[in-house]
């Protein structure tokens, strides 16, 4: 039950040339899968409360469930709000989240700067780092003109300088979800340019389905936090289906198999991201 400082984790990832995995919780079982994987891989983990769970359970219940499960584990964890609007970020800070993402992407650029700067001031007063996103990340298989989606390097430089955000999510060819058609390669060069212009650690959302070579190239170019959800959800689903295909089994039996498969899939991600073996408490006792 070690709640760790997210800035330290990210900074260690930057100096170590790897990325910390950030995964969404959806239920008690999926939260357990994430902390079990972190324990097994001795990896630090961002437990993310994401966009789907808030209308489903409410922010407070999702947070309490995550905290309870994490506290009972021996994992080094951060409880992070993913894609929060203004009110939710403030509520998350009150609830006890130790890392938040404020999503002002729907706002005009100047307004996004102003509101993000204000959120950063508030969050920093509580010692909480803020992630923001610039550029737009389309959903899988949405037809888009990529030139209007990519994060602009000059805008990113100004945004980071004027808002003081701690880490920045970028749009460089990724999508939310896993595309059915072949995804286009990531714009690795742009990641490097944004990293050089802003000087802060970068975040890649939608890391499910990315070829391992691209994940490694993105980390080498400046990505220190990788958000993946879809691949893990698919693993959980496969476990449930495998049990229920055998007939009418108990709910618990099905979700337990989902949890097992999600643990394995999460450990694989942690190895790929290089954060396996990097949990601060594992390093101290090693
Ligand atoms: Zn996202």
Explain this structure to me?
Helix content is 51%, strand content 15%. The chain has 12 helices and 9 strands. It has an 8-stranded parallel beta barrel, surrounded by 10 helices. The model has no long low-confidence stretch (mean pLDDT 94). The site of zinc ion (ZN) has 5 residues, from loops. Zinc ion (ZN) is lined by residues 83, 137, 176, 205, 227.
Number of domains: 1
Work out the number of β strands.
Answer: 9
* Proportion in helices: 40-55%
What's the overall average pLDDT, rounded?
A: 94
Physical arrangement of strands within the biggest beta sheet: 2-3-4-5-6-7-8-9
CATH architectural category? Alpha-Beta Barrel
Unreliable residue stretches: none
| Hetero ligands | zinc ion
Q: What would CATH call the homologous superfamily?
A: Aldolase class I
CATH class identity: Alpha Beta
Number of helices: 12
Gyration radius over CA = 18 Å
> Quick one: overall form?
globular
Query: What is the CATH topology?
Result: TIM Barrel
